[in-house]
Design goal:
Length: 314
């Protein structure tokens, strides 16, 4: 009888032990997943910290001291000096004007090209190759082409002279930004177009078929179906185009040097020249101001995409 009671008692304990064991295994599994995730993320976190976060914090530190040799805290004095600097204001104005014109054009034109390639047009592959070829052309070759075309005695002026138009030195004229905008669009439209083509292929075909059955117009389908599904891609292409609009400094520098015509003097020129003069505190203050403007602009873009595309996400 005692043995029977003992066996009965053990049978009551076993379920409790098994549930506790299961809970313990589950917690261990959760811990293991966290450790595995941390192991995979650690190299990326270290890389981002070493190459982005720490250098940015160093730049912020330089922007609030007198100079690297005299680390005296000066507060916002460097920022005030930069904002009062005429070269900085010229560079900021030119950069803002260029981005405000070039970025929307890059987004809109590339979207139009992607929509055009959705249609049945002749020589579609040749058309696609034409817009993708600038991605394979080195920067030096692009600069050489633009020098040949837009020089005061270049190809474009020779062509315009046929119509009796006097030669124009395009890179030192009021049309200088137009030249760089054309260069920016020529280099970036192809890649943006491919991104939009991929996004268009991901739109549910059923929605478009239902819209066709109900007699929806092409404009209605574009604004109420396609554009809503394209909103994440529009956001990505816009941010990418903003970043690329700052990279155009390479071409401007190779075309015009350190001190170009006033209309082509950009933020990168200002920071490059202040770096050359070892004026690190002003360069750091300008970099922090530029970073703040970029963060605010990108935050606004994310908020706009969230509002516009919330119905699609739901």
């Amino acid at each position: 009888m005692n043995r029977g009671k003992k066996v009965k008692k053990n049978t009551k304990v076993k379920p409790g032990r098994s549930s506790a064991r299961a809970a313990w295994d589950k917690s261990n599994e959760h811990v293991r997943d966290m450790l595995h995730g941390a192991a995979y993320l650690t190299p990326s976190v270290i890389g981002v910290s070493v190459f982005f976060i720490v250098p940015f914090l160093v730049v912020v530190y330089y922007s609030i001291i007198k100079n690297p040799l005299n680390p005296e805290f000066v507060g916002l004095d460097n920022y005030i000096q930069v904002l009062q600097n005429s070269s900085f204001r010229t560079a900021a104005k030119n950069t803002a004007i260029f981005s405000a014109i070039a970025v929307p054009l890059a987004v809109i034109l590339s979207l139009c090209l992607a929509l055009l390639l959705e249609c049945r047009i002749p020589c579609k592959s040749l058309f696609r190759t034409f817009f993708l070829s600038p991605m394979m052309v080195p920067v030096a070759s692009v600069v050489l082409i633009w020098q040949v075309v837009f020089h005061s005695k270049g190809t474009l002026n020779v062509f315009l002279s046929v119509f009796g138009i006097a030669p124009i030195d395009w890179l030192t004229s009021p049309y200088c930004q137009l030249v760089i905008i054309i260069l920016f669009l020529w280099k970036n439209l192809g890649y943006n177009m491919i991104l939009f083509m991929a996004a268009l292929n991901n739109i549910p075909k059923e929605l478009l078929e239902v819209a066709d059955v109900e007699g929806a117009s092409p404009m209605h389908k574009f604004f109420n179906i396609k554009l809503r599904y394209l909103s994440p891609t529009v956001l990505f292409v816009t941010i990418l185009s903003i970043i690329n609009s700052f990279k155009v400094f390479r071409e401007i520098y190779l075309l015009t040097g350190d001190y170009p015509y006033d209309g082509l003097y950009t933020m990168q020129h200002f920071m490059n020249n202040t770096f050359g003069r070892f004026d690190y505190q002003k360069m750091a203050a300008a970099a922090v101001l530029l970073a703040l403007v970029m963060m605010v602009l990108i935050a606004i873009l994310f908020k706009a995409e969230d509002i516009f595309g919330k119905d699609v996400e739901g």
